[in-house]
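Form 12-C: Joint structure prediction
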Amino acid sequence: MDMTLNINGQAHDVAAPAASLLVEVLRDTLGLTGTHIGCDTSQCGACHVLLDGVAVKSCTLLAAQAQGAAITTIEGLGTAETLHPMQQAFRDAHGLQCGFCTPGMVMAGLEMVRRHGTRLTPALVAHELEGNLCRCTGYLNIVKAIVAGAAAMETADA
Amino acid sequence: MRDFDLVRPASLAAATAAFAAGGEAAYLAGGHTLIPAMKSRLRMPDALIDLAGLDLAGIVPDGKRLWIGAMTRHADVAGGASAIPGLAALAGGIGDPQVRNRGTLGGSIANNDPAADYPAAALALDALIETDRATHKADDFFQGMFTTALADGEIITRIGFAIPQRSAYAKFRHPASRYAVVGVYVADHGNSWRVAVTGAGPGVFRWAEAEAAIAAGGALPTLPADDLNSDIHAGPEYRAHLCGVMLKQALAGLV
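Section 2 - Result
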């Protein structure tokens, strides 16, 4: 079926089967491979993207369901030269080991800022991270990165 | 996932007409149970009918009942069902934040997973389940594992939960799926108590002995292990024990 997806501020006309998952269209059709497929069973969060600013699992969403919404992937957050404050915080805090879960972790961090503001506690972040798995088990630095990234977003907004 | 025809109707009439158009059809609500089932080919509908365009989301208190649209997402129930804090807390404990951003009340109620959370709330809060063609009482609606009173093609439009004086839900969650190994919802309706148990049996059920014991101020009962679920997570005796523990936790947390 023909669909139009608004991704990172740009409209993309896509012809894909109705059964295509959003993550499949992002990666395979459009080459936006920053969004990862980890478990493919709605557990791990490597596929998180923002739909109208709200974090969702792109492996459990049909691409067709995302029509009409503003989709933000990890590619839409910052540039290699100027990282988004949340991305920069992951770099500064070494909030990644193999890096596979990182795009979803960054999106989860943005979801926490959306729902709880920029002043996050480590306990809240740990609780809110239940939709993301890091198989390197590097959670300590991920929590530090999200707390710092959220705080940096407050400064960046000011 | 096997391909299908995607239909995106803008009215209930168009949705039911699409359902009746031939072949196997399925309604898509939040999709967080159906899409995984389709990926594993447990479900292979010929037509998938997306209910997102029917304007079925929203929360409206109406004196004695809190009416919640079938397409209201778990996150919105968690944040918006302040008239029933126990229900809001239940919704905030489903899945994880990203699941709650997509999964819907109506989808969960229609699916009637024996370990889902919402059926316990619907039963304990004496809910009315309104559809495009009928109103079902929760007591008659849930008919065992994945089975409900819904006819083929019937669409839940909204659910009215009786607003209790106090209520609470306690769940022993499966650590990976966050479904209830055992969940107990207790509601104080003033002149009566209702206690509903999910996860423990082949479907959600009311625990009449517990309701009577609470009302009488007597000792809390033990649930017999007969007919309770047994799987790799918990045997029937353990589930029976957990029912007692969750009952006490819910009673201690009434709000």
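Section 3 - Comments
The longest helix of chain A spans residues 139-157. The interface with chain B takes residues 1, 17-19, 21, 40-43, 45, 48, 54-57, 60-62, 64-65, 108, 111, 115, 128, 130-131 of chain A (CB under 8 Å).
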